[in-house]
Design brief:
The protein is an alpha+beta fold and 320 residues long. The chain has helices spanning 3-12, 27-36, 41-49, 58-73, 92-96, 98-116, 121-142, 150-157, 176-179, 206-223, 252-257, 270-278, 295-305; strands at residues 161-164, 167-173, 192-197, 231-236, 261-262, 313-318. Strand 1 (161-164) and strand 2 (167-173) form a beta hairpin. Pfam families: GNAT_C (PF18164), NAT_N (PF18082).
């Protein structure tokens, strides 16, 4: 068997489910969806040229159908993880864009879900544009078109993650084992929380973050009335307290850190920092050649060159 056969077999081993089926789309409709998903113009030609169809590429189409069934069959909170390996290199552009095709074809299912939840369309649009951001990042990393963050986008398309202004909020249930500690005043094991994520598309000014936090509790109370979210949690290299040793107190990062009460472990995350600050794929990059044009870039490089490590901080806050 070829690598492609093995990969297809792995996807088709996933359990099927009785959900709305995928439907082929015209080139014009696919192009319209790419705009809504925020996919950069540079990738449109490649995505459209390799879009599978049931007649022309039946094996790829069946793999897409099965992934779509997995996407919408399970309870989104405990079952958010999927086992979707990257396509083998021998598939070329069709493989690199395979999961873009999946989310493009799944867009009607997401829109129907958001309509049932009465999600405002501007929130829907802001949320799904993260796909395009990840496609743009792939081109920065590899200097070619593609997408490899399929596991991350599951949250968006299952209706657990929403972007509200500057920040993203993801419905979750706190598992203390992940944090190894429980604060007297913070969220308790097994309680609903909103996991906070910070898209990398602009400054996270205190004013923009304030506006996002103000929107969060009313939004989720309205659209998920059976859930009660009193706390937000965050796990990010941006919460590494070492950053405060390199950045001024007035910096947006340091001011963001002050919002959180820290708890839990702080594992090394050098690759995450290099990825988000210097746009490097994990495990790559010569420190001596990295740009050091900003205070943050200089801090990242100098700390690593001195033998230090950057760490993923964890924190909680009470939602306003």
């Amino acid at each position: 068997m070829s690598e492609t056969d093995d990969w297809l077999a792995a996807l088709l081993k996933q359990p099927g489910a009785d959900v709305a089926d995928l439907e082929p789309v015209t080139t014009a409709e696919a192009a319209r969806r790419l705009v809504l998903l925020g996919v950069p113009d540079a990738d449109h030609t490649g995505v459209l040229a390799t879009l599978p169809s049931p007649n022309r590429t039946p094996e790829l189409w069946e793999a897409l159908r099965r992934c779509h069934q997995v996407l919408y069959a399970a309870d989104p909170i405990p079952s958010r993880k999927v086992d979707w390996p990257n396509a083998p290199a021998e598939l070329g552009e069709a493989g690199r864009y395979f999961y873009v095709h999946l989310f493009l074809l799944a867009l009607p299912s997401l829109l129907a879900l958001h309509r049932r939840l009465n999600i405002p369309f501007d929130v829907t649009a802001a949320t799904v544009e993260d796909l395009g951001a990840k496609v743009a990042s792939y081109r920065k990393y590899y200097d070619t078109g593609g997408f490899d963050r399929q596991g991350w986008l599951v949250r968006h398309f299952r209706g657990t993650l929403f972007r509200l202004g500057r920040l993203q909020f993801d419905r979750a249930v706190l598992t203390i084992d992940e944090y190894q500690a429980e604060s007297d005043d913070g969220p308790k094991d097994g309680t609903p929380v909103l996991e906070v994520h910070i898209p990398g598309d602009g400054p996270m000014t205190p004013e923009a973050c304030d506006e996002s936090f103000r929107r969060a509790r009313p939004f989720f109370t309205e659209h998920f009335p059976d859930e009660h979210h009193d706390h937000g949690t965050c796990r990010s290299w941006l919460l590494d307290p070492q950053l405060a040793e390199f950045l001024p107190e007035s910096s947006n990062i340091v001011r963001f850190q002050r919002r959180w009460t820290r708890f839990g472990p702080m594992p090394d995350c050098d690759s995450d920092v290099l990825e988000f600050v210097h746009h490097l794929p994990p495990g790559t990059g010569d420190l001596a050649t990295l740009p050091q044009d900003t205070t943050l870039q200089r801090a990242i490089v100098s700390h690593l060159q001195s033998g230090g490590h950057w760490r993923q901080g964890c924190g909680w806050l009470a939602l306003p």
